Amino acid sequence: MNINFFTPLSLFVFATTLWASSDNATERYGERFVAYAQVNRTDGTYRRMLTTPDVLETVQNGLPLPDGARVLMETYYSEGEISTVFHKQKVDGRWQYGSFNGDVDLSTRPQASCLSCHAQAAETDFTFTRSALEGASQFGLSHFLCDKPGRAPCALEVYRRERTQ
Amino acid sequence: MKQHYSLPVRLCHWATLFLVAVQLSAVMLNKLVYDTRPILSETLVQTHISLGGLIFIVTFFRLGARIFNPAPALPSKAILRWGAIVAHASLYICLFILPVTGYLRLAALGFEVEIFGIISLPVIELNTSLAAFATRSHRICSIAFITLVSAHFAAAALHQRLDGNAVLSRMGFKRS
Question: Buried (b) or exposed (e) across B130-154, using 16+ Cβ within 10 A?
Fold first, then answer.
């Protein structure tokens, strides 16, 4: 194993990221979720992407997102106010989707409307922010600027560009 | 000379028109609610899928009825006659291609397509290239279909106006 100066530094950043970004989410969802990306839209809205620490660890090791992996997307139409929360979970190698407003409901089922859009991210396991997941240990919470309004999906390149902050 | 299409063809024609109108409405409404009403959006998509399956079945029966029942005579002018044949054939082709590509774009992503929760169509092994091809084809075919329907409607209205030859009544239910 090649251990150099950057290895402990990366681990420190990773641990700090987990600690700093998980508190509110843990309280809200009743389990530990970590914010790894924020996607700002040109219409002033933004989304925060969260996942569980074990998923981040798996992805750091270059492995595909495992069965049971969960990703949450909090939508914000005004600063600090969560609107709909979209989420997905991998079940038997396929993604299932769900959403809720208000009371937390993390149940999922196959949904055509979600899958149709996520098909554009087929090369990254139907996950637009896969590169941000991989970069979480180096960059912490990544920020991206998506040039499309609303829930319209952005090109994968948006999430590979240099981060805005 | 035969004045009307057969009753099954006429019924299928107007049923198709109604179903296509609902399909287009569902697509347009989905664009409005997609951002903020995900559950309604999914309901609209599921409705679109089920109605697509129904259109496929109706078109299948309609084509059978069309083949086995003689149709009213086409215009005598060759250019008009061939125009009508090509337009009608293209409409039928679109009515088959649209449900098939709609099914493939989801089934090839491992999604189990259901028609009204009653009929489950087979899932295909994950094939993202096929899904992308089907998605593009569905989009192109839907644009072609809307264009053809507009031309079909315009041609019928024009014939009715210019010739007064009761083109519209061929699909009507009034006794002549």
Answer: bbbebbebbeebbebbeebbeeeee
Residue A143 counted as domain residue: yes
Contact A113, B38 (CB under 8 A): yes
Could you give the count of Cα atoms lying within 13 Å of B83 in the half-sphere of its Cβ?
A: 12
> Do B105 and A116 count as a contact with CB atoms less than 8 A apart?
yes
Tokens of A42: 């040109």
The tens place of each residue's pLDDT in chain B, 176 residues long, gives 567 889 999 999 999 999 999 999 999 999 888 877 888 999 999 999 999 999 999 999 999 999 998 888 877 788 888 988 999 999 999 999 999 999 999 999 989 999 999 999 998 988 989 999 999 999 999 999 999 999 999 988 888 887 766 677 788 887 65
B36 and A84 within 8 Å at the Cβ level: the answer is: yes
Indicate the number of domains in chain A.
Answer: 1
Q: Which domain holds residue A62?
A: 6-159
CATH at residue A143? 3.50.70
Say yes or no for a CB contact (<8 Å) between A122 and B109. Answer: yes
Whether B106 and chain A come into contact, CB under 8 Å, resolves to yes
Question: Do A9 and A138 meet the contact criterion of CB atoms below 8 Å apart?
Answer: no
State whether residue A111 sits within 8 Å of chain B by CB: yes
Q: So where are chain B's domains?
A: 7-171
Contacts of A116 in chain B (CB under 8 A): 45, 105-106, 135
Q: Which residues of B touch A110 (CB under 8 A)?
A: 111-112
Tokens of A138: 């180096």
Q: Cβ of B41 under 8 Å from any chain A Cβ?
A: yes
